[in-house]
Write a structure and sequence with these properties.
Elements: H1 3-39, E1 45-53, E2 58-65, E3 72-77, E4 82-84, H2 90-96, H3 98-101
Antiparallel strand pairs: 1-2, 2-3, 3-4
Length: 102
């Protein structure tokens, strides 16, 4: 009798967390596509140190192209689908700067 509710709870948890994982993968792909378009490259792009900001409406992180030497920073506005690569821009510093994190 107790097995049915436990299995129901496990199934519900799997649906919730599985959906979140798929959503995160979709967002990663969206960011990689925006980077590839902005950089005009077809090589693979690696994302690192992704951090949600502005209650999930933005993502700060670092990227590296397959043919690149090192990582560079970016800000991606998830609501406007807008990518910012200029780390000195107001949009980047207000969302990804140290004062925005603290």
């Amino acid at each position: 009798m107790i097995i049915v509710p436990v299995l129901g709870i496990i199934a519900l948890a799997a649906m919730i967390f599985g959906g979140q994982a798929l959503s995160d993968e979709s967002l990663d792909g969206e960011i990689q596509q925006a980077l590839a378009t902005s950089l005009d490259t077809s090589s693979a792009i690696e994302l690192q140190n992704l951090q949600e900001v502005q209650y999930g409406y933005g993502i700060c992180g670092a990227y590296k192209t397959a043919d690149g030497d090192g990582f560079a920073s970016f800000f991606y506005d998830t609501s406007r689908k807008r990518l910012t690569l200029d780390v000195n821009s107001r949009e980047y510093t207000s969302n990804c700067g140290l004062s925005a994190i603290c």
